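testing teh design pipeline on a random one, pls ignore if ur not involved
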């Protein structure tokens, strides 16, 4: 498989944003090909200005909901205990 000399920039959810070779005007071997420059988070390259990640802050909300659910079910037996 052809590898690409560039760096692959990915969003917080793992979606590929772009390859640095494309930005430099060269051809990328393909986002699914090995990248010798490695992977970088888009916020490392562009700061917090990524409109894609700003529009989809999904991950943290999902984690928070799950955590609350776990805490509630853990407390339930204590509430119903005789006392
Ligand atoms: Zn992003
Ligand atoms: Zn590439």
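output:
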């Amino acid at each position: 498989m052809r590898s690409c000399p560039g760096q692959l920039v990915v969003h917080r959810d793992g979606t590929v944003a772009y390859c640095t070779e494309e930005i430099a005007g060269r051809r990328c071997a393909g986002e699914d090909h090995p990248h010798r420059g490695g992977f970088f988070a888009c916020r490392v390259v562009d700061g917090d200005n990524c409109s894609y990640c700003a529009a989809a802050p999904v991950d943290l909300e999902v984690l928070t909901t799950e955590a609350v659910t776990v805490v509630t079910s853990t407390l339930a037996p204590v509430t119903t205990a005789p006392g």
